[in-house]
Input
Amino acid sequence: MLAEELRVLDGDSPLWRPARPLLDAALRLEQNNATYSWHGWNKQQITTFLDRLSPRCSLVVGVWETVPGEAGMPEREELALGVVCEVVNGEVHSICTFQALTSAGLKPELEPGVDDALEIMRAARRLVAPVAWALFMEKAAWDEWLFACGDDGAVIDKGELLATFARQGRCVLLGGQPRVYTREG
Output
């Protein structure tokens, strides 16, 4: 799941703060036995997902939060989490925030929407690796998906839950990898 030598490219970025607890959870999943779960996640479902990706690719997550305006100003959308994970042969080898993507031409002020999502994916491809999947969503939906679990904390199918969110319009899930079709299917 995680490479033995995982690189964090911009650990001093303010965007790293919300990503750190997720890395801590991934480390706990990595280090515990197969029965350990964290908020409906287990090592097997993550490993299965990573193993199905191209040998070298990236995963992108952008989460926006609606922040109330101050002193009569309108509310605004603010980036709450923006990370790119480099995956090599089914293992996460590096993690960086969207701030690191500015060196690949990404503008520093991002907004939710298709235009910025595509720019994030282009910058991730240039700096990290071709994007396998990019997930963009609002923080309330992110928290619901991230922390959802079955009865008594049981593991659930996070992929199916995310697909449900996408069908409901609660997130945008973009695939960046070409699919190879054969005559058999």
